[in-house]
Amino acid sequence: MKESSSKHLRQLIAQHAARMMAEGEGADYARAKRKAARQLGATDDRCLPSNAEVAQELRLHHEIFHGDAQPQLLHQLRIEALAVMKLLESFNPHLAGGVLDGTAGRYAETEIHLFVDSVKDVELFLLNNNLPYRMDEKVYRFGNGKQRMPTFLLEGGGGTVRLIVFATDDLRSTPKNSLHGSAPSRASTASVAALLQLQGGG
Length: 202
Description:
Structural class: alpha+beta
Helix content: 40-55%
Number of strands: 6
């Protein structure tokens, strides 16, 4: 495939994946990219765009189709994320994903990383506080290996809150959330509070 054709296909896949994520058809970058590639008939993994390329198209999609509504929704999601983080402060919560990087839309999950030595401690906390949850898992890549991280799904006012449980020492590491993903950025409770203050509320 010629370089120009390959670049064009990467952009088409990124745009298609971004649209699916914005409309709730793709839960995360990895799934959205692969689904978009299949629908466009692309079979070569080298044609898959990076998460950053999809995120750029996602921001553009929100700007074009959700103008004023998306920033307001994002602000509300961050307020709700901060409330959850304060509740879970003993587990060293850090915000990640679209609610942090600004790409979250109507169907986005709020992703919060917890750092604790025992998953049972988180589960007992949720049970003792009468917070309904569903168990799930999410795959991350550490170095050359992949690891399934336990996850608790809560239903918040703005949608699903995904609590991903890492070991305490994992805060120093930089896992990747898919084979083609980039290391997720994270923000502490104090950082999210400061971000909301800059936005004028929280």
